[in-house]
Amino acid sequence: MTYLMVLIFLGLFGHLIYFMVHDAKKIIADPHNKRQDYYSEYIIRGDIVSADGQVLATTVTDEDGNEERVYPYKDVFAHVVGYNDYGRSGIELDYNFELLTTNVNIVSRLKNDLKSDKNPGDTICTTLDSRLQQEAYDALGDASGAVVVIEPSTGKILAMVSKPSFDPNYIDEVWDYIHSDEGSESTIMLNRATQGLYAPGSTFKIVTALEYIRENPKYENYSYECEGVDIYNGVEIGCSDGHVHGTVDLKDSVAYSCNTSFANIGMKLDKSSYRKTAEDLLFNSKLPVDIDYSESSFVIDKNTPSDQIPQTAIGQGDTNITPLHNAMIMCAIANGGILKKPYLVDSIKNVDGAVVEKIKSSETKELMNYKEAEALIDMLTGVCEYGTASYYFAYTDYSVAGKTGTAEYDNNGNCNSWFVGFSNVEDPDIVVSVIVEDYTENQLSGSYVAKRVFDAYYDK
Asked: How far is it, in rounded angstroms, from Cα 311 to Cα 264?
């Protein structure tokens, strides 16, 4: 009997240790866990701050001890920082455990306990740059869309904007609106940067070009005569505005975003290998990020009818991608083929500023080899020097490599505008991924928004 009691005790003790090590944070962070109310009775929810020290979320206490969660930047950081009610979202949700944990020094804790005062929760120090976030938000104007800015050498996410947005200071009113008849179809709560799935348009020509490079070691010898329109397996493919590009090689095909050339390339590719390359670039795959996101899709396989290939090769068809994923592909290109895991939180500090935990992304994934990345960089530089993005980037003080895209999303010619690229080509500084919904020639483009962000980065 004694041995049985010892075994039971050891089993319970082992379970407790396992819970403390593996499950405590997850369970306490669960928004449905009522124990969170217990923690909030003893701890003032900690702050969330930007990399440049700006307060993004804080708890204000009035004279009667009533607490209110305040978001000084209102709707600018709404999707990425989140809100602290109705189940929580964003960083407020992902780091709920840390925000309700206190590492205040022992003297202060004893004083607070003696006075029955709450202890201050820890501070979440993000990688977000308030200037870049504000500029990206302003650059989008009244358009719906998203902007993601990442430092490719580290994986730090410097900005993440989604529009339309909402003010988390008035989350009660926002919640009532989206559950009303008037707001039932509203998408203001959707983080378009991570959860918005869009046809990639011509930004997908990066994937098609990479597959062609892999199948054709002498890809520099590629040549095609663009006449503005061509027909492949009964499918008519035309270049933008019927533009005739003449004789183009692979670099020119990328630079001018020549649809007929890329349809021609697509028809030459091995379907199974094409799918593998897309999946090497994380289509149909889980992304190495600790952020809620939608999974991008690529449907071509060996059984796909050939008449679907031309549209797929130019980024139409059934292919979908998020702005975050597009940024990650460009990060790998900028970083010689290696993707550093993107992350939003740099460190956790106590109220006195002492570092409790330093969070550094060490995870990497090779999406392509160095030579493949170098070949793509050369082509993407052409886009910005003399191609479709040259209007914005040919004469900047900094160099840019990138890809534009105009993606139709219905049969009426309605389009979204893309730009994804990086600055300082020889030693990349930042990657910017932009989607502008419902683009027309009279509205701002993805390239315009990206240039605003690049300019802000170098205007230090």
From this structure: 11
